[in-house]
């Protein structure tokens, strides 16, 4: 699957309709974003079971703000609508492949337990 543009209007729907969603927050004037784009596109073609979305932070300022984007490119990964990875900066193809593999192999019950523990520290 090739990358797809994600807008504020379609962001939540993209997350709810797909198990794994990667999102690249970028801008046309950003040099590192331009360097990362072909890597992101290449890896997306190798994982048809994963949605690889792109958010143009210039066109989607509200979405970028809601996602607390302060540096671009920023890569986020969602699994079962849970944010499981967020990091600014471009990565290479092998790092992105490793990240996709790691997100696919997450035990989401364990992730949810950890999140619940972080939200309720008195219950440990």
UniProtKB/TrEMBL annotation:
Where the record annotates domain Thioredoxin, the positions are 1-105
Sorted alphabetically, which keywords does the UniProt record give? Answer: Disulfide bond
Q: Which InterPro entries match?
A: Thioredoxin (IPR005746), Thioredoxin-like_sf (IPR036249), Thioredoxin_CS (IPR017937), Thioredoxin_domain (IPR013766)
Q: What family, per the record?
A: Belongs to the thioredoxin family.
Query: What protein name does the entry list?
Result: Thioredoxin
The organism is: Citricoccus nitrophenolicus
């Amino acid at each position: 699957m090739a990358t797809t543009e994600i807008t504020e209007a379609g962001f939540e729907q993209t997350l709810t309709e797909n198990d794994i969603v990667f999102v690249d927050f970028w801008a046309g004037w950003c040099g590192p974003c331009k360097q990362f784009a072909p890597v992101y596109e290449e890896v997306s073609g190798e994982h048809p079971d994963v949605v690889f979305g792109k958010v143009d932070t210039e066109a989607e300022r509200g979405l970028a703000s809601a996602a607390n984007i302060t540096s671009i490119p920023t890569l986020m990964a969602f699994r079962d609508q849970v944010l499981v990875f967020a990091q600014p900066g471009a990565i290479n193809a092998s790092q992105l492949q490793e990240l996709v593999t790691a997100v696919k192999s997450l035990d989401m019950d364990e992730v949810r337990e950890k999140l619940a523990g972080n939200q309720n520290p008195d219950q440990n």
